[in-house]
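Marked as duplicate of an earlier ticket. Keeping the data here for the record.
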Amino acid sequence: MLNDVHAASYSLWAFNAGLLSFMLIKILANGYYARQDTKTPVKIGIIAMVSNMGFNLLAIPFSYVGLAIASAMSATLNAYLLYRGLAKADVYHFSRKSAVFFVKVLLAAIAMGAAVWYYVPEINQWAKMDFFMRVYWLVWLIVLAAIVYGATLILLGVRKHHLLTKN
């Protein structure tokens, strides 16, 4: 059982590399939809899907982890193409203010991840816990993550009005 858990964790780590890209796709596509352009995100999605097939072929030597890496790579390409189209149309440009905000959010995410990584029990300990103890630990880790993330953002000077302003 533990070998299966470790094996699954490798693909999750690889897939995690594309998480930001998957989120950006959801955000950037709305820039097209708001302008009544539904064709461009579909065309870009098709390009990303075909690239995913190519990346999958290149990733065959890496087995199931390679498939996760290929998905992350195609999502990054998709997000890049969506952004490039919006920038060319002069709809959105990544500003210095956006870059500073991104760095602050990234630092908060790193602090959150470090705190959770420090406190999370080893996989062998998880396997020995009963259901309710796992739930307890999971809830505690989620609360810890939220507190560390929020506190770090506050320490870095991010306030509610920063989230509500343009660029």
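See parent ticket for discussion. Residues 129 and 135 are 10 Å apart (CA to CA).
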